[in-house]
Amino acid sequence: MIKTIRGLSVSGTLVLIAALLSPASSAVSAEQKTAKGSDLEQGKKLAFSRKKGNCLACHMIKDGVSPGNIAPPLLMMKSRFPDKKVLRAQIWDASKRNPETAMPLFGKYEVLTGDELDKVVDFIYSL
Amino acid sequence: MKKIISLLILMVIALSALSIAHADPEQDRKSIIKFFETRFVGIPLSEYVNGVYAYDTIGRESWEAIEEFPPYEIAIEKGQDMWEKPFANGKTYTDCFPDGPAIAQKYPHWDKKQAMVMTLPLAINQCREANGEKLLKYKKGSINNILAYIAFESRGKKTHVVIPKDAPGALAAYEDGKKFFFTRRGQLNFSCATCHIQNAGNRIRSDNLSPALGHTTHFPVYRSKWGAVGTLHRRFTGCNKQVRAKPFKAQGEQYRNLEYFLTYLSNGLELNGPGSRK
Amino acid sequence: MKLVIKLVLIAILGMSSASILAAVSEKDAGIAIAAAEAERKKAASVDSEWRDTGKIIKKAQEAMNKGNYEKALKLANRAEHQGVYGYEQAMSQKDLKMPSYLIH
To answer: Which value does ipTM take for this structure?
Structure first.
């Protein structure tokens, strides 16, 4: 029964490794850029959606209407998280860094699918 | 000799186990009060009966405007009719509650005979059952009328939850409720404390989070969202659903024990129900 | 006549290949649903069932009844995970630890 879960976390790790191995954004072609743009749009939609990321429940985000103030505003993410995978790990399971966090475990508890999580991470990282 | 030694050892074990389980409710209450005093400097304890409006100054204005023509007034009137109208057998609620209707301050309490936390809604239904009346539902509907009437009549009395020392089950029920309160639950992994202690006064989207202190003083509550007066356990249900946990049965053991703990925290605070909320 | 035989052959081939491609059988879906239900109950036994787990299992059951075994399996797996996580969530908090913000 746990097997499926194990399989899942393995695939999660694979995604993580894949994300690590992916080339830096400066090297992408124009074609990829448009694809990336729409991915960012999807990430934004997921981040703002009450049923999915609902990041606005707690974080201020540019363009977001009536954000909460439980958690820090999402700005300058690249300087706060020089390593993107640290940001991804934070969204995946924030309790690892802080057991008393109020942040849901978006990845671990499957609030978002792996694909959705990647899009949200991309969007948040663009802020 | 051996027997005596092993008996002594057993006693020591039993005693130490007892001391671990024996957390001090007064200490819990005081440390939570201290938390709020530090977080909201200058807000007197007595203000917490107003829930979030103790510190949500913007929300307070519209709340005060609503309270001028309270949306729960009809419920109080209907509740009074219920209280006064004899049952089919000719008896009334006063036969069950001779000190009524101002009795909200007596609940919840540890019922020694039934060895469980007795809440007001449960006591009302036990009274009805004893008199051959239909049981009322515990979340919505007419139970809120009689609760609103009793709450209104009990205004000004003080929360006074007792955990009798001679009934070990009472402390266990309190501990159980306390554990419930601090346990993270649901897909979103929140405990009651995450929102109502740790983040009280912070906003989820545009909603200011209410303090656990004072939560129980103003129920039943008319909520604009419900368009009706609802019970405390209906609110518990809503909270559990919001964190994506499966809610428990209204008036089941979990929620009754939670009510016991939560009400204990407000000991000494004035009852001011029924209330109104967004 | 030849055409008819050809058509029949194609039809048979098509059907068999379809059944090979549809990797999820009714049995698989049924097993997954039963596993999900077991995990849901386990989480409920420690007061830690999640809100949607039962609903997801119901949807899985409906998908199975309609013959959509793949969908049934997917839903059942999701519900199963929820049951496992819900149980783990409760177990990791078996002993109440007071939060640091309340310890003075």
So the answer is: 0.88
